[in-house]
Amino acid sequence: MMRRPLLWKKILVSAAIFTVTALAAPLAIGLFNFPQNLGVPDAAAATKRAALVERPASLADLVEKLSPAVVNINTTATVKSRRGIQRKNDIPNNPFFGGDDFFRRFFGDLPEREFKQKSLGSGFIISSDGYIFTNNHVVEKADKIRVKLSDGKEYDAVIKGQDANTDIALIKINPNANSLPVVKFGNSDKLRVGDWVFAIGNPFGLEQTVTAGIVSAKGRVIGSGPYDNFIQTDASINPGNSGGPLFNLEGEVVGINTAIVAQAQGIGFAIPVNTAKNLFEDLKTKGKVIRGWLGVAVQDITQEIADNLKLKETKGALVGNVIKGEPAEKAGIKTGDIVIAIDGQNIQDTHELLRLVAAIPVGKQVFITVLRDGQEKRLAVAVGERKEVKDLAQKVQPSDQLGMTVQEITPELAAHFGISEKSGVVVTQVKERGPADEAGLRTQDILLQINKGQISSLKDYQAEISKPGPEETLLILVKRGETSFYITLRK
Questions:
Q1: Three-state SS for 144?
Q2: Of 67, 81, 129, 137, which is the active-site residue?
Q3: In sequence order, what are the residues at sequence separation of 6 or more whose Cβ sits closer than 8 angstroms to the Cβ of residue 235?
Q4: What is the average pLDDT across 221-246?
Q5: Is 167 marked active-site?
Q6: Going by C-beta distance under 8 Å and a sequence separation of 6 or more, which residues neighbour residue 331?
């Protein structure tokens, strides 16, 4: 009789174990992601696994094959400085030392001295006879350029061509009849966000370093120049990687690593290799890049401008000024036109217009579609050559700024302000924090139009700003210096 409780205990323990096992099984399946249907393969899961397999288990074979075409670039530049006078951080500015001012007061300005400044970068060989692509900022100030190959051989290099606007440089070494390994170019236009990429370079002087990641974004504008069109990647790019190649998984160069965000992690930028390919011949034969030129000043269309002009969207580039004698004027483009397409390719903003026109061969005729008073017009333009003293399509950014005094342009005022304009009214005073100030108007600005109405006198000006209407803003064409642009001013 005493054994029955023990039997019941065994039965209860067995039941508890069964219950815990039953409850734990689905939990374990969830934790370890076991397939729920072990008998029938999941087609969707199989597709996902196949997609993941596209990324190789290792990049080692590719790296071994490609590394010989990636080079280390050492540069030496002569820099002049008054050490202790110009370099403010050399001596602590505390009450005891007194900093630079202390030494200047007792010893006067130190003589200017020369010293050698060394820097490191990367590059990649694009022809067996020694042409190499790198960044312009790596070599632009160098007195001496030394290129080191992966096998340890070193060569002196010379600059064959430079383009500061895209930060691309072409340099050359003499391989002494040796045939050099070269990279293969890919098509950066075909890159997609999420594609795997990897970089080979010399970050911090650590030669032949490989980092991998994905394309994080395309067409990035980071403010480095008028033709920004960067590939953003999370493949680690550090000082010393500049000028090195960004490869796809086919082993093709798709970008030139060029910029980093110092405060961020996993954000680097590369120039699309198609940009470099398009510049190669100019860099090789002319030493610089020849770009197209329209002869207009343009600006982005803000929502306020779009509302005032009754536009449905803010796309396109608004022409603020047409330079006399240049291609745009000859073709019939006028101030106030909105450029919306070039040869059928839509224009999103001024930046896109800059890039597209720059890439058009000089002398080529293109058809530019403009929006004028709500109607589309198609105009034939023979593209001119952009000169260094000009800006391809000057991007005039109205300042973020109706308290002001305006006067007719009398001979006396024209002489006082140096004004050559005969029409319009001149701003002679701007009230601080008033509407004009907030719109960005300055003294000596000339107001040529208000809501597309021409201003020739104070009477015209008063009539335009006094017109009744539902608009809360005035669209004003302003001439400042040698250019003109539109601003919006709240009443």
A1: strand
A2: 137
A3: 197, 198, 199, 211, 212, 213, 214, 246, 268
A4: 88
A5: yes
A6: 368, 379, 380, 381, 382
CA angle 357, 361, 367 (to 5 degrees): 55
227: its two tokens: 């033709």
Q: Which of 167, 228, 300, 445 is catalytic?
A: 167
Is 236 catalytic? The answer is no
Evaluate whether 407 touches 446 at the Cβ level (below 8 Å): no
The predicted-structure confidence for 326-377, as pLDDT tens digits, reads as follows 999 999 999 889 999 999 999 999 889 988 999 899 999 999 999 998 899 9
Using alpha carbons only, give the angle 270, 124, 188 rounded to the nearest 5 degrees. Answer: 40
Q: Which two tokens stand for residue 147?
A: 């290129």
| DSSP, residue by residue, 178-243 | PPPP--EE--GGG--TT-EEEEEE-GGG-SSEEEEEEEEEEEE--SSSTT--EEEE-S---TT-TT
Gap between the Cα atoms of 31 and 26, Å rounded: 9
Q: Which of 119, 224, 236, 242 is catalytic?
A: 242
Catalytic (active site) residue 137? yes
